[in-house]
Amino acid sequence: MASEEMEQLVRREYKDGFITDIESDTLPPGLDENTIAFISNKKGEPEWMLEWRLNAYRQWLKMKEPSWAHLDYPPIDYQSISYFSAPKRPEDRPQSLDEVDPKLLETYEKLGIPLHERAALAGVAVDAVFDSVSVTTTFKKELGEAGVIFCSISEAIRDYPDLIKQYLGTVVPVADNYFAALNSAVFTDGSFVFVPEGVTCPMELSTYFRINAANTGQFERTLIICESRAQVSYLEGCTAPMRDENQLHAAVVELVALDDAYIKYSTVQNWYPGDENGKGGIYNFVTKRGDCRGDRSRISWTQVETGSAITWKYPSCVLRGKDSIGEFYSVAVTNGRQQADTGTKMIHIGEGTRSYIVAKGISAGRSDQSYRGLVKIGPRAKGARNFTQCDSLLIGDKSGAHTFPYQEIGNSTATIEHEATTSKIGEDQLFYCQSRGISEEDAVSMIVNGFCKDVFQELPMEFAVEAEALLSVTLEGAVG
Amino acid sequence: MLQVNDLHVTVDGKEILKGLTLTINAGEVHAIMGPNGAGKSTLSAVIAGKDGYEVTQGSVTFEGQNVLEMEIEERAQAGLLLGFQYPVEIPGVKNIYLLKSALNAQRVARGEGEMPAPEFMKLVKEKLGFMKMDASFLQRAVNEGFSGGEKKRNEILQMLVLQPKLAMLDEIDSGLDIDAMKVVADGVNSLRAGDRAILLVTHYQRLLDYIVPDKVHVLVDGRIVRTGDAELAKELEANGYEGIEESVA
Questions:
Q1: Is the pLDDT of residue A293 over 70?
Q2: Of the candidates A154, A232, A242, which has an alpha carbon nearest to the alpha carbon of residue A194?
Q3: Taking the alpha carbons of B232, B233, B237, B241 in that order, is the dihedral positive or negative?
Q4: What is the ipTM for the molecules in this complex?
Q5: How confident is the model at residue A80 (pLDDT cuts 50, 70, 90)?
Q6: Which of B76, B84, B91 lies at the smallest CB-CB distance from A450?
Q7: pLDDT interval class at A365 (50, 70, 90)
Q8: Do A450 and B50 touch (CB under 8 A)?
Q9: Please, are residues A301 and A288 in contact by the beta-carbon 8 Å criterion?
Q10: In this complex, do B76 and A434 lie within 8 Å of one another by their Cβ atoms?
Q11: B84 inside 8 A of chain A by CB
Q12: C-alpha to C-alpha distance for A68 and A250, rounded to whole angstroms
C-alpha cells in the first residue's frame, strides 16, 4: 500500500532528523497552528505573514480534498507528514558518487548532465560541488545592475515586504483550492522575481542556479512580477531525476504581468515516478496561475512533464488586460503506472484577449493520462479568441488517454477553435523507420519527438535539447 | 546475392506464398509481375521483415546470411532496402532528419562511422537535384501532405542516398503520371550497378518500358509460374495474366 509506504518514509525522516538530533530544525509529523508558528518563526517572518498563513490554515480546515480528477490514489494522511525538515546533514548524505545508485548515474549519463553537476543532483555531500558560489555572485551582480530582484521567497518576505503584501495571494487566493490553501499555510521556500518597469531581464532565470539549496521542493511558493514593458524568461526544474524524500508536493506559482509585460515560464518536471508498480513515487499537486493584469500583456506556460506518480496540474491564465495573450504549451509523458490529470484554464475577461493551447499527451506502459482544459469567455471579452489543439499518442495497448474540454462562452463575438486527435504510435511508422536501418528505440524516440515538436520549439534552446533526451530515456523499453 | 528457397508464408492463417523460389545475382534487375492477390507485395514485405507474416517453410538468404533471423533494422544495415507502395507519414519529423538518421545508423552498423554534415548535405543536394525535387522537401515532415508522386520520388531519393545492395521497389509506379514515372525510372536506372541488384514488384508492364529488367517472373497464386526476359512482360501485356494461368493449369 502506498499509504504505508508514505508512513515508512515519514518514519524514516522522523528517525533521521528529529530523534537523532533534537537540536535540529526538523519538526515531528503533524499539522496545527503551532506547526505554522514554528515555520514562520524559523523563517524569521513578521507578524503579518504569520497571520496570513494562519488565515490560510483555518480556511484549509474547512475545505475538502478535491476528488473530481481522473486519478486514483490512497487517502493522504496530512497529520503523518513532517512540515519542516532541515536538509540532511552532510554525514548522512552519500560521500561520493560511488555511493550513489548506479542506475541514477546511468540516467545522468544518458541525459548528458555534466559530471560536476551529477554529484549535486544525487545529493552528494561535497562542499564545493561546483563553482556555484562564484556563479551565483556574478549572476546576482548582473541582475542587480538591471534592477531585477531574484531571491528566495523567504528573503523577499524579509527584504521586500511591500511587494509581497501587494502581490502574494492576489493571483491564487489563499483559499483558491485545497492544495493551494495547504501551501499558503506551510510553504517553506520558493523563488521571488521582480522585474521593474521597462526592463528586459538580461538572462534566463533558472532555479537550477539554486541547486545546492536543495530540499525546497515539498511546498514551494513562487511569485514573479513583471511591471509595465518588463520581460522575463523563467526556467523551473531540471531534466535529471531529482531525489526527494517527500512524497507529497503541493506548489503554488503566481505570475503577474502589467501593461505590455511578457512572462515566459518553462518547466521540466521529472520527479521520481515510483517503481514499476507505482510505489514510492511523488504526488504532485500544483497550482500555477498567471494574471495578465495589464493591457497587451502576455504570459506563456511551457511544460514538459515526465515524472511523478500522480500529477494534478493546470497552469492557467487570467486574461484581464485588453488584448492580453495567454499561452499553454505542454508535453506530458506517462509510463509504468503513472497517472496524470493535467491541462490549463484560459479565463478571458478583457476585450480582444487571445489564448493558445497546444497539449500533447503520450501514454505508455500501464499509465493513464487526462487532458482537462477550460476556456471561459466573459461577457466583456469582446472579440476574444481561443485556439486549442490537443493530441494524444498511445504506446502499447495497456495505456489510457482521456480528454475533458470545457467551454463557457459568455458572448457571441468570441471565436473558439478546438482540434483533438488520439492516435496509436503506428506500427507502420515504426516499420518504416526500422526498414531504413534505424533501431526500434531510436524510431520510437524520433516519432515521439516529432509528435511533440510544436511544444519543444517553444522551449528555450538548451532546455529543448535536454527535453528530447529526457523523452527517449522516459520511454525506454516502452515498446516491444 | 539473394536466395529465396521454397518459401511458404501465411497471413492470418491463410497461405499466401506457396513455395516460392528465386535467385537474384548482383548486377541484375528482376521484375515480379502478377495479378492482384498473387502474393507480390508479400514477398518484399517478408524479406524486409514486416510483422504479421509467418514463414512456415523455406529460407531467405542474403549474401550467405539468414535474413529471416535478422532484426528489421539489421536487414537494412546489411543492404536490403524496401521502397514502399504506400509510404507512411511521420508528422513533425523532417525528411532530412530521417535521411541522416537512417544513413548514419547504417554506416555505424557497418563500422564506417557517421558521415560528416557537410559531406552529407552535398550528397543529399546532388541526389535531390537528380530527382528534380526542391530543397524545401528536406524541411518538410516525412511524407506529410505529399502527393502520391512526391511520396514515390521520396522513396527513390532515400534509395539514392542510402545506396542499398538490393533495392526492392513495391509498386513504385502506382499512381504516377507519365512525367513522374520517367523521373522515378531515371532514379532507379541510376542505381543500376554491377554490385547491386534491383527487384521490381509491379502489376503493369508500363514501368518496364522505362526500367528494362534482365528477368521477369510471373507470380500466380503464391508461386512463380514462369520466368523469362523483358519480352515476357510484353507478352503479358498482350495476353493478360489469364493466358498464363490457363497455360499453367
A1: yes
A2: A232
A3: positive
A4: 0.94
A5: confident
A6: B91
A7: confident
A8: no
A9: yes
A10: yes
A11: yes
A12: 17
Q: Does A457 touch chain B (CB under 8 A)?
A: no
User: Who contacts A82 (Cβ-Cβ below 8 Å, separation ≥6)?
Assistant: A10, A13, A14, A17, A18, A26, A27, A28, A29, A30
**Structural domains of chain B in order of their starting residue, each with its CATH number:** 2-248 (3.40.50.300)
Rounding to the nearest 10 degrees, give the CA dihedral for residues A168, A170, A172, A176. Answer: 120
Which residues have C-beta within 8 Å of that of residue A232, sequence separation ≥ 6?
Answer: A148, A193, A195, A200, A201, A205, A224, A226, A262, A263, A264
Q: Is A449 on the interface with B (CB under 8 A)?
A: yes
Q: pTM of the predicted model, to two decimals?
A: 0.78
A-chain residues within 8 Å CB-CB of B71? Answer: 434, 440
Q: What pLDDT tens digit does each residue of chain B (249 aa) get?
A: 999 999 999 999 999 999 999 999 999 999 999 888 888 889 999 999 998 899 999 999 999 999 999 999 999 999 999 999 999 999 889 999 999 999 999 999 999 999 999 999 999 999 999 999 999 999 999 999 898 889 999 999 999 999 999 999 999 888 888 888 999 999 999 999 999 999 999 888 888 999 999 999 999 989 999 999 888 888 888 887 776 665 554
Residues A87-100, mean pLDDT to the nearest whole number: 64
Residue A394 has a pLDDT of 86
Instruction: Report d(CA A54, CA A48) in Å as an integer.
Output: 10
User: What pLDDT digit, counting tens, does each position of A402-435 carry?
Assistant: 888 899 999 889 999 988 887 777 788 999 999 9
Q: Which candidate from B48, B75, B102 shows the least CB-CB separation from A438?
A: B102
**Best interface-test mutation with B: which of A392, A438, A458 has the largest number of B CBs within 10 A?**
A438
Comparing CB atoms, the residue among A434, A436, A447 nearest residue B158 is: A436
pLDDT reported for residue A92: 63
Dihedral over Cα of A17, A21, A24, A25: its sign: positive
Where do we find the cell 475577461? A349
Q: Is A446 on the interface with B (CB under 8 A)?
A: yes
Using the beta-carbon criterion (under 8 Å), do A435 and B71 form an inter-chain contact? no
- Which positions in chain B touch A425 (Cβ < 8 Å)? none
Average pLDDT over residues A165-177: 95
Element containing residue B108 per DSSP (H, E): helix B95-109
Q: Is B172 left (phi over 0), alpha (psi -120 to 50) or beta?
A: alpha
pLDDT of residue B237: 81
CA distance A83 to A186: 7
Could you tell me the maximum CA-CA distance found in chain A, to the nearest angstrom?
A: 68
A450 and B CB contact within 8 Å: yes
A–B interface: beta-carbon pairs under 8 A: 78
Give the type of residue at A214: A
Tally helices (H) and strands (E) across chain B: 8, 12
Cβ within 8 Å, pair A437-B106: yes
For B:168-227, CB contacts with A below 8 A are none
Q: Is B58 on the interface with A (CB under 8 A)?
A: no
CB contact under 8 A, A435 and B72: yes
Residue A428 touches partner B, C-beta closer than 8 Å: yes
